[in-house]
Amino acid sequence: MKYLALIYAAPDTGPVPDTPEFGKLLADYQAASETYEKDGVLLAGEALQDSDTATSIRIRNGKTETMDGPFAETKEQLGGFYMFECANIDEAIKYASMIPTAKYGTVEVRPIMDYSKM
Amino acid sequence: MNSETAKTETLARQTIESLVREDWGRLLAALIARLGDFQLAEDALQDGLESALVHWRRNGLPRSPAAWLLQTARRKAIDRIRRATNFRSKEDEIAHLMEQDAEEMAMEATPEIPDERLRLIFTCCHPALAPKSRTALTLRTLGGLSTSEIARAFLDSEQAMAQRLVRAKRKIKQAAIPYVVPQREQWDERLQTVLNVLYLIFNEGYFSSHGDAQVRVGLSNEAIRLTRILLTLKPDEAEIEGLLALMLLHDSRRGAREDQNGFMVALEHQDRDLWDGEKIEQGLNILERALLRRTPGPYQIQGAISALHAQAKDHDSTDWSQIVQLYDELFRFQPNPVVRLNQIAALSYAQSPKLALDRLRELEQDLATYQPFHATRADLLHRTGRINAAEVSYNRAIELSGEEKTRAFLSQKLGRMLRGE
């Protein structure tokens, strides 16, 4: 099973760059990534640029509308993701809880749709 | 219809009823283990029951009705997979299931039905499911209650409850919630989730005052039955014993909790002769066994508090100072203000209402809209002679209580106080 772990956090809740806390955050991400590699569960994983850089598009009446900003007007914004290959949700939860942002933000775990099983 | 046929017919119906009542969870658990699919297993078992009714009426009962039913349900499952539109992709699965079926047929003796209920209960109570869905799914799959029975117990429409169950089963399948007993490192945490579900079912039948009284008793009994089953599956687990003891001790007071007019009677005023002595003894024995294991947990502590009430001759001679201490223990496991509130109520008897009232201030912010906070404050104010302030608190508590019976209970207390009784 493939699972996507979506990493959400409200802006300005995490450690600030150039502080020891930020250094620890990076080291924790590094450590988590190493575990994922070692256990062979990592399919992909990236951090996103700030949500200020987001552009949303939608097509209405055949016209493309382009808007500045993220889709959802929520406090917590999508900041990055991992995609894992796991046997079941218990495994996915185990790896997702290693994501350091879970300590101040929220990680949402979603199974990827498998068309061969439909 | 001659009398012989009528007898066969009655026997068939009775056997099916008792199978649904006693063996539903066990059969379903075994089917899910084989099929790996909750919905398919449930549908197949339902098919099997329909088949059983037809066959047993005509041919009499098989040697082992449960084994017959399980095997028939397995074949019905194969039929269902075949009928599904995309069955080509399932050819391997069907072949595998048929092979297993043939192997078992070759064995002369009736195969023992494996008990997979521990896996089933941990899957139904998985934290990735919504709490209400865990409860509903546990009652449906392990308890064998019908959707309409569960809907009635939780005052939901049958349609809403059916949808909730379908969604939960879909999530189990699509998010791959595993059908396994958790490993040692997750065991304690996951066990608490299971016990919380069982206690929630019990409480829905015990503390809530809505709905049909018969339904409520049934629900509490079902929670006790399921906890007993869990204990037979995991006989050395102190917290399961703790929960079972807690339920039995609470339940022993059922007959004293309401007066003839259906009004709630506070613990203080209950006629202790109406308490069920047999349940108390059972509860105390189970609790003692649990405590000897020296692995304390929140349910054992709550059980111990309930046991001190059960053992007291009357309200005044209750060992209140030990109860106060036990709430400290409980707070270590459940650091929340409601535990503190209960402790303060006990403190008012162990020490004084005045001291309790002082301590209550710490909780004011957290519990501002919590009815029992105001009811407790009203009682403490009353006992320190501050009638006017107590009246304000009683009225606030009445305002906040959602249930008619609680409102009536508090109004009664307020009335008595104002009349100086």
Overall number of strands of chain B: 0
* Range of strand content of chain A: 25-35%
- Proportion of residues in β-strands of chain B: under 5%
Which percent bin holds the helix content of chain B? over 70%
Average pLDDT taken over every residue of chain A? 93
> What is the second-level CATH architecture of chain A?
2-Layer Sandwich
Unreliable stretches of chain B (pLDDT < 50, length at least 5) are none
Helix-strand category of chain B: mainly alpha
Tell me the Rg of chain A in angstroms. 16 Å
Domains of chain A (count): 1
What gap, in angstroms, lies between the N and C termini of chain B? 68 Å
CATH classification, class level of chain A:
Alpha Beta
Average pLDDT confidence of chain B is: 91
Query: What is the string of helix and strand elements of chain B?
Result: HHHHHHHHHHHHHHHHHHH
- The CATH homologous superfamily of chain A is called Dimeric alpha+beta barrel
Q: If you compute it from the alpha carbons, what radius of gyration of chain B comes out, rounded to the nearest whole angstrom?
A: 25 Å
In helices, the fraction of residues of chain A equals: 10-25%
Q: Biggest protein-protein interface?
A: A-B, 11 and 12 residues
Q: What report would you give on this structure?
A:
The complex is a heterodimer of chains A (about 120) and B (about 425). Chain A has a single domain (about 1-115), classed as Dimeric alpha+beta barrel (Alpha-Beta Plaits). Helix content of chain A is about 25%, strand content about 35%. Chain A has two helices and six strands. Chain A has a four-stranded antiparallel sheet, with helices on one face. In chain A, strands 3-4 form a two-stranded antiparallel ribbon. Chain B has about 425 residues and is mainly α. Among the domains of chain B are: about 5-105; about 115-175 and about 185-210, no CATH class; about 235-310. The interface of A and B includes residues 1, 88, 109 and 118 of A.
